[in-house]
Design brief:
Length: 129
């Protein structure tokens, strides 16, 4: 009769408690970053889409900077972008071209006294109809 050799199975083991704790801390920290920084990036995408949709707007070349800024604010409020300040938008005219520059940063408290700063900077040249 042959004896089953199960000694190989006894040597196999799962992850240790320390390994599991490190994995939980790593993925928990990663999830915290995604939850805290994700909305800032989503808002930035919405701001980019609102500005890109201005290209080809009727009478854009004849509008003044205040009117363009008001138009952008209306589009952002429709898209529910709340923490953005219109002072971060600069509108310049170069003949028929309208140059829109957006430069802003978003600060979030990560935990305790650790903060995150995300800086966004975009520039668009567009022409109205």
């Amino acid at each position: 009769m042959k004896k089953n050799n199960l000694s190989g199975m006894g040597r196999q083991g799962g992850a240790s408690a320390l390994t599991m704790m490190v994995m939980v801390l790593f993925f928990g920290g990663l999830l915290t970053l995604v939850i805290k920084l994700g909305p800032a990036y989503l808002d930035d995408l919405t701001i980019q889409e609102a500005l890109e949709s201005l290209d080809g707007t009727e009478g854009l070349s004849q509008m003044g900077p205040a009117q363009v800024r008001t138009l952008i604010n209306k589009r952002l409020s429709v898209n529910n972008v709340r923490g953005f300040d219109a002072k971060n938008i600069s509108v310049d005219k170069d003949g028929e071209l309208v140059v829109i520059k957006v430069d802003y940063e978003v600060r979030n408290n990560l935990f305790s006294n650790v903060d995150t700063v995300v800086h966004f900077k975009h520039e668009y040249e567009m022409k109205g109809k």
